[in-house]
């Protein structure tokens, strides 16, 4: 699927308004503990890896 820049920007904008829910919300609360206490020092991959 090809999207124009405006379409992609709009999709990104409206997607941010929707909460992710379980398990994302639960895991976000323990991110520091899971990553050794310094999650902010780690760089996330551009594309999530399963």
Structure description:
The protein has 50 residues and is an all-alpha fold. The model has no long low-confidence stretch (mean pLDDT 79). It contains three helices and no strands. Helices cover 40% and strands 0% of the residues.
Weakly predicted, low-confidence segments: none
Number of helices: 3
Please report which band the strand proportion falls in: under 5%, 5-15%, 15-25%, 25-35%, 35-45% or over 45%.
under 5%
Whole-number mean pLDDT: 79
- Content-based structural category: mainly alpha
Radius of gyration: 15 Å
Output the helix-strand order: HHH
| Helix content range | 40-55%
Give a short account of the largest sheet: none
Number of strands: 0
Report the end-to-end length measured between terminal Cα atoms. 22 Å
Looking at the structure, what is the overall shape? Answer: elongated
Keywords:
40% helix; mainly alpha; 3 helices
Describe, in short, the structure shown:
Helix content is 40%, strand content 0%. The protein is mostly helical and 50 residues long.
Walk me through the topology.
Blueprint: H1 5-15, H2 24-28, H3 31-34
């Amino acid at each position: 699927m090809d999207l124009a820049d405006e379409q992609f920007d709009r999709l990104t904008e409206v997607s941010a308004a929707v909460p992710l829910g379980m398990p994302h919300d639960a895991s976000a609360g323990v991110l520091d503990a899971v990553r050794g206490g310094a999650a902010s020092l780690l760089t996330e991959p551009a594309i999530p890896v399963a």
